[in-house]
Design brief:
The complex is a heterodimer of chains A (297) and B (326).
Chain A: H1 3-15, H2 19-22, H3 28-42, H4 44-47, H5 85-121, H6 123-138, H7 141-152, H8 156-182, H9 186-193, H10 198-234, H11 246-253, H12 263-290, H13 292-296
Helix pairs in contact in A: 3-5, 3-12, 5-6, 5-8, 5-10, 6-8, 7-8, 8-10, 9-10, 10-11, 10-12, 11-12
Chain B: E1 2-16, E2 23-38, E3 42-46, H1 53-60, E4 68-73, E5 76-77, H2 83-92, E6 93-96, H3 110-121, H4 126-139, H5 156-168, E7 174-178, H6 186-203, E8 206-211, H7 214-220, E9 223-228, E10 231-237, H8 238-243, H9 248-256, H10 296-300, E11 306-308, E12 311-313, H11 320-325
Parallel strand pairs in B: 3-8, 3-9, 6-7, 7-8
Antiparallel strand pairs in B: 1-2, 1-4, 4-5, 9-10, 10-12, 11-12
Helix pairs in contact in B: 3-4, 3-5, 4-5
The chains are: A mainly alpha (297), B alpha/beta (326).
Chain lengths: 297, 326
Amino acid sequence: MSTTTITEVAAIRDTGRFRLLRSRDFPLVPVLIILTIALVAVFADFLAPHNPEVGKLAARFKPPFWMAGGSMTYPLGTDQLGRDMLSRLIFGARVSMVVGFTAVIFAGVVGTTLGIISGYMGGWVDQAIMRLTDAWLALPALTFAIFLAAIVGPSEMNIVIILALVYWTRYARIVRGEVLSLKEREFVRLAVVAGCSKWTIMRKHILPNVMNSAVVLASLMLGVVIVAEASLSFLGVGVPPPKPAWGLMLSDGKQGLMVGYWWLTVMPGLCIMLMVLSANLLGDWLRVKLDPQLRQL
Amino acid sequence: MAVLEAVELSKHFETRRGIFGGSRGTVKAVDGISFSVESGKTLGLVGESGCGKTTTAKMVLGLEQPSGGVIRFDGHNLETLDTDGRRHYRKSVQAVFQDPYASLNPRMRISEIIAEPLVTNETVSSAGVAKRVSELLDLVGLPARAAQLFPHEFSGGQRQRIAIARALALSPRLVVLDEPVSALDVSIRAQILNLLVDLQAELGLAYLFIAHDLAAVAHLSHMIIVMYLGKIVEAGDARDLALDPKHPYTQALFSAALPSHPNERREEVILRGEIPSPLKPPSGCRFHPRCVHAMPACAVEAPELAAVDGRFLACHLFTHEGIKGH
């Protein structure tokens, strides 16, 4: 109980700051990849050498610079309309990032809120929300997304809303489970004794304690959502052309694959793969690091 | 004067079996118990797990609604309180729970934890809150700088001190202590118990002290109630009851506790069997299947709680029929 113990403890805490970043198994490469893609997305206007939406028909199907016929004017070649691949990939990163992050956050906010309400209120509210979730989960995600896209029409904003609507159920499920165990904890009971309202308890006691799970889930969902966006774009119900999106580029280039224009599909495919792989590796690492059971020790 | 009074307090839980079974059994977790907590005094509540101690605490704290009976605070029935009365009751009754690792929100700083009852119930300036928090920390023997730290930076004993500081934030008149030292190391228990005694003397608090640690209960309480399967079997002055337990169950309980001196010789009473399922309590006296003094009458008729030698006992051994039969 002496003051020294507290000081010592405080000292340990200070050195403990950023311990997540300094831990030995920190996924440095995936984080660097995600950061690079994010920075590219932010500074797309300065980085892209050409206009991504307007091409020169005279310069169609130019190969990347290291192949015969390629040049540094179009470092990664051009597509069937003579548009610069590099510029399209750079602006495509923006679409993927914006759609990916916003959809994950939207889905997370909706799902976490409903999960907390469902778990904490219990009774018929819980029943209603969970049956809705069950019914929702019974629909195949991509088919459902295509169905919604067909109704509201393709646009970047609509894609975000559609993906959020399709994927919120996963958060709701997991968060509800956590809340069920949290609300039996003594600090929640004591908050009731102290006179806190239900909303205060959900906001101040439940929400901060489910954030870890929500963040881990979000990082894992980022990959899923980016693939879903690419799939929708590939199927033609995603981001409308001429806006460059990786999935759309993949789709546009698929005929070229058979006649040797491999860069039209491989380049955006690589970008999608790198992004999703990095997001998943980061998510896996976060899941272990932020696991409440492991961390409590 | 009684701060808190419970009359014929009951809590019954319905149990459902199967999809089509509907409501079948009733668990009488607490079955018609009456007690009162005197201002500035400690009432100890002891018994095995599942005897209804914690359910009683929850009803007093308003976490469970009683199925029957009345709780009165300062003579006012809790059920008929208006919003203001309810708020007043909330401010006057606080709690400290068993597990100091579960009773502090791991995401809040100590200052927020301690101040929460205060900010929730009163309008205080942030300077006022900070002042009160450091007063409270001082009161429970923690340095003021603890306010800026998080719960995981403290030991079990320190956490329990924090939990006590929080319970005292609103200057309550009654604190419900539900097994406040059971989860602590033996070496820390005495410190916390002494702190509780000192705080009671200093602030005139009344305690409803729930525990299965008899030594702790005897040390802290002025009155003791012994419960068995939702009913009171013996109640009386703490000293008398600890030195001379009369009910066979109380005798067995105190016999199971460690003696105060290793050379102390005493009669050992060992209980047979397990505590019966509260879903099907035994007929007559609920304790009779395990009682060493059980008589035929015990299986038939439930003994009423009656005054015997300045305490209350529910046992046929101490009623007229019991004495005749002996």
